[in-house]
Amino acid sequence: MTDERTPRDRRTAGRDFEVDLDDVLDEDGDEEDGLFDNLLSGEPIFENKEVLRPSYTPDELPHRTDQINNMATILVAALRGETPSNILIYGKTGTGKTASAKFVSQELQKTSQRYDVPSEVQYINCEVTDTQYRVLAQLANTFIEQNRDWIDRRTRELEELHEQAREDPSALLDTEFDDPPDLRERIDALEADRAEMDDVPMTGWPTDRVYNEFFDAVDYVERVAVIMLDEIDKLVEKSGDDTLYNLSRMNSELSNSRVSIIGISNDLKFTDFLDPRVKSSLGEEEIVFPPYDANQLRDILQHRSKVSFKPDVLSEDVIPLCAAFAAREHGDARRALDLLRTAGELAERDQEETVTEAHVRRAQDKIELDRVVEVVRTLPTQSKLVLYAIMVLEKNGVHNINTGEVYNIYKRLCEELDTDVLTQRRVTDLISELDMLGIVNAVVVSKGRYGRTKEISLSVPIEETEAVLRADSRIGDIDDITPFVQARFEN
Prior knowledge:
ATP binds at residues 95-99, 292, 304. By secondary structure, this protein is α/β, with parallel strands linked by helices. The chain has helices at 7-12, 21-24, 37-41, 65-79, 97-114, 132-167, 180-196, 207-218, 232-239, 242-249, 276-282, 294-308, 318-328, 333-349, 357-377, 381-395, 403-417, 424-436, 462-470, and strands spanning 87-91, 119-125, 223-230, 257-265, 285-289, 440-446, 452-458.
């Protein structure tokens, strides 16, 4: 039997509160639509939108069977109580590295519970947790919490056994305890350990102390701990290889537990900067994830769309177009999923029943603009000033802008903000960096007997770029600047 009530009826069913009728009735006595009523009136397109997000780990990963099986054959050692080899996973963004590693980790933990083998995986995103201190503190606190839980369970079991032994000493037969006082001594020792297990603060301790706390916590009970360091190159870039050095050498000192590392990186060359000893122990096994092609991306989107969308809401050309756009972005499955999700969101906002090619093209434009906005927002101040100078020139009708013109405006901006002025050579380098980011287009052209110069133009929308730059409190205070452009000599 279908529920024919309106969304409003369902939301207010069973509530006991008073409503002022003047708030919900118009002048004719009819009920007014609220802010969200029109939005709720349309049929939803999504069944489960979370399936299209990068954080989701699917129960099946098309076209990654070889890599998954390779990881499993290495990590199966943990289920035998042995130390798995360390693994380094490489591949460009959106090639399924993290999703595959998390999938294998979940399977490992399920199997370890089934066979009652103490093994587990701890995941750390090194783009967020990007210093040795934070990595060690996060790991220490995770294992401390697990140890507390283990002590609580073990203490309850021993207390029950102690009660039984007081009435019947034979209850201790086939146990490690000689008599009730021996058992009580063990319970007291566990409770004393529990009382000493304090969390590690996220700042303020010497790093050596944090490492010792982590070492003691991981070694408190028997376990094989697999530590997954996603974006491991970010950790090395910011903090050097001390963390990897310490983690990779732990097993020679641990008594009860074993530690294995899975490193995930977009940068195939990041190990070139590691200490040779770290590189040797860390890179025991290497797995490369190649980019997806358009057909593989189509399979991935088909698989996810069956779970994420209502039946028959995608037109036939939506998934092929999303796959084609993402294949141009180096086979990035994350980009393909973002496109499909954003296209669905745009269709839902338009209260349309079908996602079409037009929604995908709008989604492509929106995602590209969002990327540009985020890149511009996070630029260093000097790069923002150089970009602002280029934007000022374009707004005033200057085309084929040269480096000298940019530098003149840039110097005036620095003077107005009372900030350091970089050399023209350094500003030229910043323009090249903006070119690599796709924010400007800088082409070297020949001017014949006048030499060679760069012709610069914006590659992003002026209005949106100006809004992002002016959101910076310092740049937002700049008065309008009108450029003075010298006469140019043409061939």
